[in-house]
């Protein structure tokens, strides 16, 4: 049962980030696993520096896109938020169903907290998600992709990041490009 969970999670290495495919027409964009790993490192450092609950933030980062291992990565243009949430919730429940009850309930609670975006940690993780996207957009910009094609990613990040420290990092990312 735990092995099934690991196999499902490993599938994220094969799921491409759809936004990069749609906007930049990339054949081999970053995977969801690439994105989650980068976010986990950001979450670790930011939560340690800000004296947040680092363990909870890292778990939330690692779980936040896990459902995509079953349903794929979908952009807002492909699915409504309601439809995406329903698909993700069903997939997440399926993924964790055979885990031991103690961690299953803990992961479900963290997942729901992220989905509801009401706690301090979930708000931070949503912003780290945007920050990581901006960092990746900047990487693609440095690889020669046009600012025009990347502008919607930077704009979305600018709107979604409200934490002062994360805003500061976002500004550095944009300047770096």
Automatic annotation (TrEMBL):
Q: Report keywords, A-Z.
A: Hydrolase, Metal-binding
Tell me, what is one Gene Ontology molecular-function annotation carried by this entry?
A: metal ion binding
InterPro entries to which the protein is assigned, alphabetical: HD/PDEase_dom (IPR003607), HD_domain (IPR006674), YfbR/HDDC2 (IPR039356)
What is its EC class? hydrolase
What is this protein's name? 5'-deoxynucleotidase
* Highest taxon above the source species: Archaea
Q: Can you list the GO cellular component terms from the UniProt entry?
A: cytoplasm
Q: What is its EC number?
A: 3.1.3.89
Per UniProt, subunit arrangement is: Homodimer.
Q: Which cofactor does the UniProt annotation name? A: Co(2+); Mn(2+)
